[in-house]
Amino acid sequence: MVNLKVSISKLKLKTPILLASGVLGSSYSTINRVIRETRIGAIVTKSFTWEPRVGYNTPIVAYTKAGIVNAVGLTNPGYRALKEILGNIVKNDVPIVVSIAASTSKEYAEIASFAEENGADAVELNLSCPHVKGHGLEIGQDPEYVGKIVHEVRSVLKIPVIVKLGLTDRIVDSALKAEKAGADAVSAINSIRSVVIDVYARKPILSNIYGGLSGPAIHPIAVRVVFDLYKNIEIPIIGIGGVTDWVDAVEFFLAGASAVAIASVIAIKGLKVIDEIIKGIEEYMDKEGFQKISELVGLAHGN
Amino acid sequence: MVNLKVSISKLKLKTPILLASGVLGSSYSTINRVIRETRIGAIVTKSFTWEPRVGYNTPIVAYTKAGIVNAVGLTNPGYRALKEILGNIVKNDVPIVVSIAASTSKEYAEIASFAEENGADAVELNLSCPHVKGHGLEIGQDPEYVGKIVHEVRSVLKIPVIVKLGLTDRIVDSALKAEKAGADAVSAINSIRSVVIDVYARKPILSNIYGGLSGPAIHPIAVRVVFDLYKNIEIPIIGIGGVTDWVDAVEFFLAGASAVAIASVIAIKGLKVIDEIIKGIEEYMDKEGFQKISELVGLAHGN
Amino acid sequence: MKMFLETLKMCKAEIVKVVKEAEGIKSLLLETSIEKPIPGQFVMVWVPGFEEIPISPSMYERNVLRLTVATVGETTRKIHSLKPGERLFIRGPYGRGFNLDEKGNFLLIAGGYGAAPIIYALHELRKKGKNVAYIIGARSKDKLLFVSEARKFNAEVYIATDDGSLGFKGSAVEVAEKLIAKYDNVLACGPERMLYKIMLKCLELGVKCQISIERYIKCGIGICGSCVLDPKGLRVCSDGPVFYAEELANTEFGKYYTYPPGIKKPIE
Amino acid sequence: MKMFLETLKMCKAEIVKVVKEAEGIKSLLLETSIEKPIPGQFVMVWVPGFEEIPISPSMYERNVLRLTVATVGETTRKIHSLKPGERLFIRGPYGRGFNLDEKGNFLLIAGGYGAAPIIYALHELRKKGKNVAYIIGARSKDKLLFVSEARKFNAEVYIATDDGSLGFKGSAVEVAEKLIAKYDNVLACGPERMLYKIMLKCLELGVKCQISIERYIKCGIGICGSCVLDPKGLRVCSDGPVFYAEELANTEFGKYYTYPPGIKKPIE
Ligand SMILES: Cc1cc2nc3c(=O)[nH]c(=O)nc-3n(C[C@H](O)[C@H](O)[C@H](O)COP(=O)(O)OP(=O)(O)OC[C@H]3O[C@@H](n4cnc5c(N)ncnc54)[C@H](O)[C@@H]3O)c2cc1C
Ligand SMILES: Cc1cc2nc3c(=O)[nH]c(=O)nc-3n(C[C@H](O)[C@H](O)[C@H](O)COP(=O)(O)OP(=O)(O)OC[C@H]3O[C@@H](n4cnc5c(N)ncnc54)[C@H](O)[C@@H]3O)c2cc1C
Ligand SMILES: Cc1cc2nc3c(=O)[nH]c(=O)nc-3n(C[C@H](O)[C@H](O)[C@H](O)COP(=O)(O)O)c2cc1C
Ligand SMILES: Cc1cc2nc3c(=O)[nH]c(=O)nc-3n(C[C@H](O)[C@H](O)[C@H](O)COP(=O)(O)O)c2cc1C
Ligand code: FES
Ligand code: FES
Q1: B258: closest CA among B74, B5, B2, B3?
Q2: Which helix (H) or strand (E) holds B275?
Q3: Residue minimizing CA distance to atom 47 of ligand 1
Q4: Which of A238, C196, D42, D121, CA to CA, is 20 to 30 A from B32?
């Protein structure tokens, strides 16, 4: 029998698929719906910031041949709303990870504490938003700063601290610093900074000009990052980027991810894709003779 | 009447489409063929190194949903072969740009001089190969070093010096340093470091493990880079990355590229794609009322 | 090479004709290559330099799409200023439209620019040979939409004006409440207050009722979370905008409206 | 969602049977989902941990692909060691195969493992009802390939062995040179020396001649430049591997072989 359970630090997931931050994770009602309708292993909320954010004006999404470019702009009701949101999530076996995007280590720590007090099972520090100034990528590019934030959050929290990193030159260094500062897991990657221009409008489509590329386009890059991280860090890795089917998910496990999170594919295939991916992994493991996800993790590193 | 001519520094191109380095540019015979069979504006050769390089063992290419990951390994006969290769290229109106990948600024300068002596119309310094140690990306990540190499090459050369940069955190800084050191143009981007793992083989497909992602996947990232470069530098930009049709090419012009280079699309659509793209640009300009490519360049930056 | 998520692609749309339908309401006829929408589906309409907004087409015939737009704010005002030959940009169609294959006859109820998807549904229902009645309400006679168009398609037409300048003096809801029991299906679109009452009536009478509703739509493809209906977690852009009355029952619909950052405003 | 450059995708292929064809030559029957190749096209075969090499299938029937492989070096030796139930990985088919729609009868000439695409072409030509003769040459009797298979398909068979252990004592070329004039078409695959002579003869006699040739193939999709034929710049992997004699005339073919970094070695 195939066992799909995985542990990410203290989190127990019934399946290895997480809902990545940003999609269907801003209100309790959609979170409850995903829990009710799918076999999701854990849910990462939309990133919460100190103040409420309306987000950018439309257009906030743009087409590319191989992915979506989005600049939602961290729309969220501000971290104080977490009390009500977490309070309205039905009790169940799906851990809720609260994602946080802040601009100082102090904000990260305060929001994290607030999330913990209100029932979050873990926090994910978004250090990699590709299109919001002061809330993202610049932080993840600076390994020292990553270490400082993780240290500060870790020292005030009991629940696991996950660090979400984006594609930068020094992502491995940032992960190492995060690990050293006590991070319990690393998520990688976020969407990749991009621009889409319409040739007839002759303007960037997004009102914010810059957005983050997600979807199939970024998958091989994300696999590379996970592969590199696995060679260098000991803590679990959550692979994110361009998963559209079970093959992509298994590829992440083989590269070194202990679990996989998905976002954009929901826009193409709907919520049902979650169970399709899980079923595909199950069948693959069954046919190929694997009992536990952990047997797959990092397998591509051997000879 | 639409005029497709563009100038990149002293180079005069009859059309704004270049053959990017790496595809069909390692032997005189394929270069002659492209010149003979298409309306190509200029040809950038495969990158030449100091010593001959056999390249990596196969597999050297891997499938992804939205692009090709390659690790050819800079296969080339060494820069001394340029004499024979350049000597065998038919005289014509298509400038030949010799691409160089070296490991020291001295090597870059020597190979560049040799290329110039043997008839190259320009050189392109490949500072961004994503999968060959000491011949690439690490160089482009370090703006100071980029400046030093360009300075050294520029000081011994008469023909234009183009600098090819890849996706790094500080690509704009590197371009600025290159410009300051006398570079005549910047090409961006190279393929992006990636890994592809086969879920049944449970191994990375490429013998070199790491390869460079090219094709549609990277286009929106490349457009972003060109957009950023245009805001910051004055010298012409050659847009590269994921162009598969005329729309992608026009998008690059609007983002700020003075010309566009293509590589992977040749694998999908064959050589005929070059003329299809050129024809598409021509028709677009005609219908939309543009006479010269330069009218399009950077147009997406206005309001 | 087939592409990823084709409906996210921006299509240019050239204005071939502009028609003033009523005070503050214009129809634009657009030549565009998007797929034929199902009545009740919407498209995202972008005027470069302005916002991208959801609009439910009021007609589609062979590459010509009609959008009927009320001026509400900056973007809709800009759209009203566009002339034939000018362009706007469209993606879609998105979401779940009206199910026109339900059995029996149809009562169509429209308030304000809600008449847009309703008149388009009327076209398509009549093409299928279905029996259709059209109730249109407005403040006054000059604000009524698509009355002659509905007649041209041989639908029974009921008119309600607040000021009694034409037809029944009062609201479309009042007219509707008397007629609903005679029909197998109700399709409705308009102000939420009105829709809510129709929903209740249909639930009470057990008449199949499909309602096209509005929430703040930003992405249109189900991933940004701005259009969510609490507490069921329904996304108006992709689970809707057309819902059956049963789906809307026991939700925020008719009671409050959740604006993007999660701010709730009561429906007046 | 249709994907990009589908033929670049690695397909697993399970070995269902291994057949020893001759000394140093084995056929593998593989269950795989790649498209049916045209005879003369090739696939890239990867044994993880070893290299990926080009092989021209010798048969295809309903998801079963046959590869006939001669041991030459490390990868081919490894392939010979594989057992039924084991896997290898395949992508393709690639390149331009034989044009089997040419008019008239066909003379098929094979040397060594060059018999692989030739016997596959023979199958398909016979299925089209074409008149076919098969010349197979080898060092000795026990190295001959597909003799009985060719007979089963009712082809005329001519045998040549260097040591005269069966059929004509001498080379396949000698046999061929006498027969070519009687045929409308020649298809040939084998050692370059042999192919070159056949090409010259066909050009001399004006017989349509298609030759499958070898160069160092690394990417298989026309972008790495390792398989190029000077001075015409033909890529064996995508413009070939099958060429008409006219295309090969006045190229390096038959004279020298350009190995990847551009090193030329004469053809012995
Ligand atoms: C599914 C759907 C179909 C619609 N079909 C039509 C139609 O056929 N004809 C028509 O005239 N109008 C239609 N609307 C309403 C239309 O989208 C708004 O009137 C328009 O967005 C107002 O934009 P503005 O910039 O002019 O006004 P603003 O000044 O930006 O806003 C005025 C008010 O319009 C509403 N609004 C603004 N932006 C949005 C948005 N992105 N999504 C939803 N509501 C918004 C809000 O209530 C806001 O307070 C539809 C709305 C939805 C959700
Ligand atoms: C289009 C084509 C079709 C072929 N079809 C068949 C076939 O049906 N059956 C068969 O047995 N062989 C076939 N070959 C030859 C086969 O690819 C080589 O024998 C094989 O690559 C040798 O690999 P190796 O690792 O065992 O030997 P190595 O020790 O790597 O090389 C031995 C020699 O084989 C040749 N070779 C090696 N790698 C390649 C390569 N990637 N491309 C071309 N030649 C190479 C070179 O001449 C080399 O010197 C074909 C070759 C081509 C180009
Ligand atoms: C619409 C949208 C909104 C997102 N918002 C967030 C966010 O708030 N915080 C965050 O860490 N990542 C956010 N992401 C990034 C995703 O979590 C994920 O890292 C990225 O999309 C790559 O995964 P995918 O290819 O499966 O979409 C968002 C992505 C999308 C598409
Ligand atoms: C097979 C292959 C070989 C390449 N070799 C080189 C090279 O030698 N030097 C170089 O600067 N870029 C090389 N490139 C990168 C291309 O020039 C180009 O930057 C990249 O492929 C993105 O463009 P594309 O998406 O149009 O392919 C190579 C790309 C491919 C696909
Ligand atoms: S508008 Fe984005 S989810 Fe509905
Ligand atoms: S093998 Fe790469 S071009 Fe032919």
Answers
A1: B5
A2: helix B272-288
A3: C216
A4: D42
Q: Write out residues 172-211 of B within 8 Å (CB-CB) of A.
A: 192-197, 199-200, 202-204, 209-210
Q: Does A69 touch chain B (CB under 8 A)?
A: yes
Q: Can you tell me the mean pLDDT for A58-69?
A: 95
Cβ-proximal residues to D206 (8 Å cutoff; 6+ apart), any chain: none
Minimal-distance CA residue to ligand 4 atom 7: B22
Which stretches does DSSP call E strand in chain C?
A: 11-22, 25-31, 42-46, 52-55, 59-61, 64-70, 87-94, 106-111, 132-138, 156-161, 168-169, 185-189, 208-212, 228-229, 234-235, 242-244, 256-259, 263-266
B197 contacts on A by Cβ (under 8 Å) = 223, 227, 251, 254-255, 300
Cβ–Cβ gap C2/D1 under 8 Å: yes
The one catalytic residue among B74, B129, B226, B257: B129
What average pLDDT score do residues A176-192 get? 97
**CA terminus-to-terminus distance, chain C:** 50
Residue D157 CA from chain centroid, whole number: 18
CATH of C98-212, one of 1.10.260.40, 3.40.50.80, 1.25.40.10, 1.20.120.80: 3.40.50.80
The CATH code of the domain at D2-94 is: 2.40.30.10
Asked if B215 contacts B242 with a C-beta cutoff of 8 angstroms, the reply is: yes
pTM of the model: 0.96
Q: B129 an active-site residue?
A: yes
Beta bridge partners of D67: D28
How far are the Cα atoms of A205, D25, D116, D180 from residue D167, in angstroms, in the given order? 74, 20, 20, 18
Asked if D129 and D73 touch (Cβ cutoff 8 Å), the reply is no
Using the predicted structure, report yes or no on whether residue A220 has a pLDDT greater than 90.
yes
Contacts of B287 (CB under 8 A, 6+ apart): none
pLDDT per position as a tens digit, B39-61: 999 999 999 999 999 999 999 99
DSSP 3-state assignment of C261? coil
Size of interface C-D (CB pairs under 8 A): 9
Can you tell me which residue has the tokens 């393709």? D92
Protein residue closest via CA to atom 44 of ligand 2: D216
Nearest CA in chain D to A244: D1
Q: Which two tokens stand for residue B28?
A: 């005189």
Query: Average pLDDT for residues A208-232, to the nearest whole number?
Result: 97
The span from the CA of B162 to the CA of D120, in Å, is 50
Sequence-separated (6 or more) residues with CB below 8 Å from residue B185: B8, B9, B160, B162, B163, B235, B236, B237, B238, B258
Answer yes or no: do B268 and C49 touch at CB < 8 A: no
Q: Where are the domains of chain A?
A: 6-53+75-194+215-301
D222 lines ligand 6 (CB under 6 A): yes
Residue C52 corresponds to which tokens in the numbers above? Answer: 């991208």
**Binding-site residues, ligand 5, Cβ < 6 A:** C 217-220, 222-227, 235, 237
Cβ <8 Å between B33 and D89: no
Omega before residue C93 within 30° of 0, cis: yes
Q: How far, in Å, CA of C107 to CA of B213, rounded?
A: 56
Q: Rounded to an integer, what distance in angstroms lies between the CA atom of residue C234 and that of residue B107?
A: 63
* Cβ contacts of D4 on chain C, cutoff 8 Å: 1
Give yes or no for a contact between A192 and A212, defined as CB atoms under 8 angstroms apart.
Answer: yes
**Looking at the domain that runs over A6-53+75-194+215-301, which CATH code has it been given?**
3.20.20.70
- Average pLDDT of chain C? 94
Q: Give Dmax (Cα) for chain A.
A: 56
What is the predicted pLDDT for the residue at B139?
76
Chain A residues whose beta carbon lies within 8 Å of the beta carbon of residue D1: 216, 244, 268
Which residues have C-beta within 8 Å of that of residue B173, sequence separation ≥ 6? B143
Domain ranges (residues) in chain D: 2-94, 98-212, 215-268
Q: Which amino acid is at A240?
A: I
Rounded to whole angstroms, the Cα distance separating A225 from B234 reads 34
